[in-house]
Amino acid sequence: MTPTSQIVGIQAVMNVLFGRYKMVPAEVKGVAYGLYGKTPAPMDPKVQKIILKGYERGETPITVRPGQILEPEWDKAVEATKGLAKNDGDVLIYALYPTTGQRFLKWKYGLEEVPEEVKGKTLEQLKLENEVYSTIKQKKLFAKVKELLENLEKAPPAKGAGLRTFNVFVDGQYYEVEVEALGGTPVLTGVTPKAAAVGTGVSPVVAAAPAPAPARVSKAAAAPLETLAAGEVPLRAPMPGMIISYSVQVGDQVAIGDLVCVLEAMKMQNSLPAPAAGVVRAINFDPGASVAKDAVILVIGK
Fold first, then answer.
1. 253 and 296: one domain?
2. What is the pTM of this model?
């Protein structure tokens, strides 16, 4: 049942990525609190307690109809969009999506230039993209056919010293197959009779050395390079998403764990805590901006 199925699914992803309930989106807290009504089966009280720890509405789930605890929001939305909204539909857009709705209304009424990445494509652009895609696809297909024909025309190579023979049985049919490794770890051949297993008539199998593991790239090395002064700590985006709002401004004093930013990812709002105590030195993105994973959202210093 959407949206509950998505809320549960996203929390499962968060648990895998960041640890069990280390990051809990606002929507999951809402389910645990009772804002979506009663769950089909009672929630585990221990899990519920973990999820609601520090929740701004309270840590005790409600037992009444959710609508009874919601404050009226329409007048606030009207006030927030004064001079921007032209009708009730505009106000409703803002009420549902405050950050993206406000940006949309500014684009709608020409108060801000519409970014190229959100503009619609013309029929001419779509036609050109289809032509380019078809051309690339045909060239790749032609190259693949050419490669296959060239392989068919090649004369078979001479059998090497590493050739090995295998008996293969498929659906009762017997086949004798000769296999020769062309690359990778060399196979030990020419085993002397003394090395063979006594009484088995089978030559010993020499275990191939494992291929060297690929070098690990640290997250720090993969992250974009930013210049930070001594003692400054960055708050990095844990995943790609969009900045919804900030709870702080440049110059504010914060403690470790304080809510500083709300990041929307996978249609869920995630509260990001301060990674260190200190003063907010820089905020690098405006609300509504899209950020990549590991992007430095803000910087905290002493």
1. yes
2. 0.57
